[in-house]
Amino acid sequence: EIDSEVCPRRILVSNLPKMNTEILLNKLEIHFSKTKNEGGEVDLCEYLPDSGTVVIVFLKENVAKRLVEMEFHEVMLNQTKHKVRVTPFLNGKITNLETKMSMCPRTVLLTGIPDIMEQETLQDLLEIHFQKNGNSGGEIESFLYNPLGQNILALFGNASKEERDEE
């Protein structure tokens, strides 16, 4: 289960232009700290690179709610007014998480393979070897060779009905 709640001191700012991150954070902090923009004193301003959004944390709780109610704000960025979107920041936590280990009957992990030739050639030779019925192999659906860890993963395409039921 994932429990979430709206954080009373944080906002999430999106629809941001591509620009220098430090300048962007400074401009947003200046804008959202001004009372004429319905802002308040900013405690933290953080860029989230994976989503291209910014989280702004205020010292007082009521500031975030006011800004979220307005949703769209015109902020001076790159010498032009840019319409950014302000949404609530959700705090979340995972509860009642259950994990279990299982073994996939179609996967084989090979270790200790010496680095004796070019990676692509070695991968091809290993795939050929494990496709041969004489080597107790079968048609390989996917094959990955990782030379740094000296590991290979081969995923076989044809699993019996019993094996699929076990997955």
Can you put this structure into words, describing what you see?
- One of its GO terms (cellular component) is nucleus.
- InterPro entries: Nmi/IFP35_dom, Nucleotide-bd_a/b_plait_sf.
- Its main location: cytoplasm.
- It is found in: Cytoplasm; Nucleus; Secreted.
- Residues 1-43, 54-142 form the NID domain.
- This protein has 167 residues and is α+β, with helices and mostly antiparallel strands.
- The protein has two domains: 2-94, Alpha-Beta Plaits (2-Layer Sandwich); 107-166, no CATH class.
- It is 25% helix and 39% strand.
- The chain is built from four helices and eight strands, in the order βαββαβββαββα.
- The chain has helices at residues 21-33, 62-70, 119-131, 161-166, and strands at residues 2-14, 42-48, 53-58, 72-77, 80-94, 107-111, 140-146, 151-156.
- The strands form two sheets. It has a five-stranded antiparallel sheet with strand order 2-3-1-5-4, with helices on one face. Strands 6-8-7 form a three-stranded antiparallel sheet, covered by helices on one side.
- It starts with a strand and ends with a helix.
- The mean pLDDT is 84.
